[in-house]
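In the design runs reported in the main text, the only information available to the sequence generator was the tokenized backbone. The following block is the verbatim input for one such run; it is reproduced so that readers can re-run the procedure and compare outputs position by position.
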């Protein structure tokens, strides 16, 4: 096998929707694997295989999924069965040596399978997911785990959780950290000007939150805390929210409504990667108070841009930010207020944190992620 590229299949279906964490993982890993020239990569897109790496989501796919759910009985089971048929035929035709499922639930495959399990949030915080998703994960994940030749997680914290929860043998599971794309790098004010002007923001003067608007991200906590800060702080440092609208957002929206009206909270919705990079690089700080994460890409991306981060001290986030990021209990409003105020008032402290964050982020890369993933593929193929 040494001279020939490995014939690997990856499920690329997460690339068909606007990219959240799993889509970003799939895209960046696939790009790095292709760039390595050590892999002959094929991607499965819902109903067919392709060697092309999709870079844009399908237009209106969210509405299409909603229509299918509304009018098709047992939509998940039915679509899954059809996909399995198409998956199996294509995998045989392509003579794949190994199949990697980057999104928990693998299709059945005649050869060795690697799965990536990003977290156990549906078990740890079931109330932060739609009940149907929790049922599907509880029903299908144990089988996917049992079929897997090897399991990858994004962090050691999740690796330990899966070993404890499911009794997976430690030699069958490997933690491989993610990376930050090259687009996420420090920029001066001129390099951010167009993006900032379009949103009426000033360089290094706003507080940034990035992530899907949903309960697990704990955004209500930051908005309530921010609302209690002095009006002078809020007027000078607006809170900017970047991310798709998730579910159970009505409380969040009512909490932030007066602040939105005053221009102190700015929900920007889903933002292009290029604009996001400029927002990271021009923020005073990224605040990421999530209750639970499988990794936490936004803090790493912000750190790569030389921006200080404040994260909750839960799950994988301390593992990602190390000593560079500042940490707070995800219910400690006073602690968060103190950290924000100091970054705003103390330029030397801000500069020190920014430099620590940039250095820490340089330890992570998608190239490293791909090489460590390739090492797992080779180990699995050698043992199969």
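Verbatim output:
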């Amino acid at each position: 096998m040494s001279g020939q590229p490995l014939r690997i299949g990856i499920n690329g279906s997460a690339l068909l929707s606007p990219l959240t964490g799993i889509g970003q993982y799939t895209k960046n890993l696939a790009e790095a694997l292709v760039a390595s020239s050590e892999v002959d990569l094929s991607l499965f897109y819902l109903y067919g295989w392709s060697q092309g790496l999709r870079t844009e989501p399908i237009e209106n796919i969210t509405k299409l999924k909603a229509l299918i759910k509304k009018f098709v009985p047992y939509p998940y089971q039915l679509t899954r069965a059809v996909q399995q048929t198409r998956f199996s035929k294509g995998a045989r035709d392509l003579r794949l040596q190994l199949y990697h499922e980057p999104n928990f639930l693998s299709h059945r495959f005649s050869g060795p399978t690697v799965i990536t399990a990003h977290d156990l949030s549906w078990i740890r915080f079931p109330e932060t997911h739609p009940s149907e998703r929790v049922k599907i994960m509880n029903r299908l994940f144990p089988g996917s785990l049992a079929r897997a030749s090897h399991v990858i997680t994004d962090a050691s914290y999740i690796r330990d959780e899966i070993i404890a929860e499911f009794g997976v043998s430690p030699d069958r599971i490997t933690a491989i950290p993610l990376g930050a794309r090259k687009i996420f790098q420090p920029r001066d004010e001129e390099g951010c000007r167009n993006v900032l002007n379009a949103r009426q923001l000033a360089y290094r003067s706003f507080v940034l939150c990035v992530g899907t608007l949903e309960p697990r991200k704990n955004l209500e906590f930051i908005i309530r805390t921010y609302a209690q800060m002095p009006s002078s702080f809020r007027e000078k440092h607006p809170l900017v929210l970047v991310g798709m609208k998730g579910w159970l957002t009505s409380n969040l929206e009512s909490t932030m409504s007066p602040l939105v009206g005053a221009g102190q909270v700015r929900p920007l919705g889903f933002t292009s990667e290029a604009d996001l990079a400029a927002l990271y690089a021009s923020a005073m700080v990224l605040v990421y108070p999530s209750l639970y994460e499988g990794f936490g890409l936004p803090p790493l991306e912000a750190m790569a841009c030389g921006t200080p981060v404040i994260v909750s001290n839960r799950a994988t986030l301390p593992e990602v930010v190390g000593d560079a990021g500042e940490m707070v209990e995800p219910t400690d409003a006073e602690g968060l207020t103190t950290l924000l105020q100091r970054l705003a008032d103390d330029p030397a402290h801000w500069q020190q944190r920014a430099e620590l964050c940039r250095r820490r982020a340089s330890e992570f890369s998608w190239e490293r992620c791909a090489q460590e993933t390739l090492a797992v593929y080779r180990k699995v193929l050698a043992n199969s």
